[in-house]
Amino acid sequence: MIGAATAMRTDLCGRLRLADAGRTVTVCGWVDRRREHSEHLAFVDLRDRTGVIQCVVDGARDLRGEYVVRVTGTVRRRPEGTANDRLATGEIELADCSVEVLSASEPPPFPLHERTEVDETIRLRYRYVDLRTERLQRNLRARAAVNSAVRRAMEAQGFVEIETPMLIASMPEGARDFVVPSRKEPGAFYALPQSPQLFKQLCMVGGIDRYYQVARCLRDEDLRADRQFEFMQLDVEASFVTRDDVFGAIGEAVAAATEAVTGRRPGEPPLMTWGEAMERFGSDKPDTRFGLELVELTPLFERTGTRVLQAPCVKGIRLPGGAAGPSALTRSRVDELVEAAKRWGAKGLAWMRVVPAAGEATGGGAGGGSGGGAALDAGVAKLLSPAESAGVVSALEAEPGDMVFLVADERPVVRQVLGLLRLELGRPPVGEGGLNYVWVVDFPLFEGLDADGRPVPSHHPFTMPHVDDLDRLEQGSGPDLLDVRSQAYDLVVNGWELGSGSVRIHRADVQRRIFELLGIGPEQAQARFGFLLDAFRFGVPPHAGFAVGLDRLTAVLVGEENIREVIAFPKTQSGADPLTNAPGPIPPSHLGELGLRVAPPA
Questions:
Q1: Quick check: 29 and 48 in contact, CB under 8 A?
Q2: Do 524 and 172 contact (CB within 8 A), yes or no?
């Protein structure tokens, strides 16, 4: 076992304290900074993975930033008035130092110890230098703590880690596969797994009973802040369990990971149905750290004469202090929000200021109604009847100085637009506002109908329908099927979907019905899922599972907005790797071995 004391060093830089005064120690690391003290003496800040120690060096003119050195010196208290409260080692320094240069360094491509903005492509091109920064050192060690914590939690609950293959057959899982040509069989291809989904279900058929894996998954889809081609997930499956059993197992692993990074253990996440999440927050991954919830106003405007509010659905949100005070929105900002709402799919965005009520009715541009001493003014307020104005104030619990926003459209559009608007107006940064975990349950089994009127599954076709909706599944058709609920569930934190899971179909009659509704005949089902269906012929236990995105979980725990900051060697937004220049061409001789030719660009 290699500890701090090795043949090269006796201690780590950041671990030395005043209690070590008088000891002669040897430390190794990178020169973080060098400051001239006199003609002969210099202060050299030496950095390793644990922190920085100040070394007083005689004749340090040849030392430069990022040189790798070995320093031997005596620990002593810093002179009075020179302690540095910002450093854990700020009370001490190394004196009477001898220095051995282990490796010289060219000037780094960007400063490591300054809070300067560096182009991301440059950072990724020199990622091995970027990894030395305090930020990435912290993030990657937090990631390691997350992995260790979830493994301990799963093993303590009787789960067994099983590795599943990386070269598999192409399987439909919602995204494009990355494919690997076979040299042994030219023209044939492996696929890299989007997830271990079918293999972990086979583990249940095989009697593993409780499986888990810290699994690498690959999906060829457009990248964004919470998505990379390659990602890691805690993959879990268990037999003879209910949804609540899965919640307990996953909740324990996530709580352990949270405690490992933050030092605090979160409470048990509350449950929220998909319908409630969509109606209150306009999203199936609600950020519950703040209010600005969507309020139903449709009944109030059923007979409205205001054309812009004549729609199947009307909802509103209230922005406290949005009309008056230090956080009031400017007119230009309101105009920006109106244009954003149109980009998000709305025909427009109705807005009004809330002002003190002037009595039973107000003149000028006010809406005329009063409720709790408040009335509506500006925007579309003059188009509302007194009853409508009073109803909006009452329903939104609006107070003078607030701003209210209304969207009228089809219900899915209203929910989406106001859901994005509330995030735009109130969402705290990732690292602020605490950690609000929530389970979202009872997702629709189908997300819509295709051109042929067949339902489109919201998840994979092995998700068990809600037990109370099985009769509707048998008897329903077309639009009626869109109300069938599934036993799928998501874990959400601060508006990020950490993962998804479901109770799986283990009954042959239910699976046949799902395939029928999706237009998947026996031959097609056998071609696409044959090895799983064949396995199910030999006795399959009821089972359920889940997968937690470890990149996303770590990013939230350390307060990063982008998962690239918790991955050692990520890709850029375009999917490129500036470090290795991937993707790139391969030699024609290699293509020939694989039986491939590259078509010229279109």
A1: yes
A2: no
Query: The pTM is what?
Result: 0.90
SS (H, E, C) 531-559: HHHHHHCCCCCCEEEEEEEHHHHHHHHHC
pLDDT digits (tens, 9 = 90+) for 453-498: 888 888 888 999 999 998 888 876 777 888 899 999 999 999 999 9
User: Which amino acid belongs to residue 134?
Assistant: E
CATH topology of domain 13-103: OB fold (Dihydrolipoamide Acetyltransferase, E2P) (2.40.50)
Q: CA–CA separation, 378 vs 105, rounded Å?
A: 64
Looking at this protein, which amino acid is placed at residue 439? W
Give the CB-side neighbour count of residue 394, counting CA atoms within 13 A: 11
Mean pLDDT calculated for residue range 378-404: 94
Size of the chain, expressed as the number of residues it contains: 602
Q: What is the dihedral of CA 451, 454, 460, 465, to 10 degrees?
A: 150
CA distance 540 to 25: 63
Q: What are phi and psi of 318, to 5 degrees?
A: -115, 130
Distance set, CA 532 to CA 165, 210, 525 (Å): 15, 18, 10
Q: Give the pair of three-digit tokens for residue 492.
A: 């959400």
Number of C-beta neighbours around residue 196 at 10 A: 26
Tell me the C-alpha distance between 11 and 450, whole Å.
65
Tokens of 372: 């709790």
Nearest in space to 50 (alpha carbons), one of 19, 4, 91: 4
Beta carbons of 438 and 270 less than 8 angstroms apart: yes
Class of domain 291-426: alpha beta
Domain with CATH 2.40.50.140 in the chain: 13-103
How many angstroms separate the CA atoms of 48 and 30, rounded? 6
Q: Which two tokens stand for residue 461?
A: 């076709």
Contacts of residue 138, Cβ cutoff 8 Å, sequence gap at least 6: 558
The structure tokens listed for 355 are 């002002």
Residue keyed to tokens 């190394």: 94
Task: Yes or no: say if 398 and 354 are a contact pair by the CB < 8 Å rule.
Answer: yes
Determine the Cα–Cα distance for residues 495 and 436; give it in Å rounded to an integer. Answer: 9
Give the residue carrying structure tokens 């899915």: 412
Euclidean distance between CA atoms 479 and 173, whole angstroms: 24
Distances 528 to 184, 217, 275, 520, 537 between C-alpha atoms, Å = 23, 20, 32, 10, 16
In tens, the pLDDT along 331-356 reads 999 999 999 999 999 999 999 999 99
Positive or negative, the CA dihedral 425, 427, 428, 434 is: positive
Find the mean pLDDT for residues 433-439.
96
Whole-number Å distance between alpha carbons of 236 and 211 = 6
- Whether residue 583 is preceded by a cis peptide bond, meaning omega within 30 degrees of 0, is yes
**Residue ranges, CATH 3.30.1360.30, the chain:** 291-426
The C-alpha atoms of residue 150 and residue 143 are separated, in whole angstroms, by 11
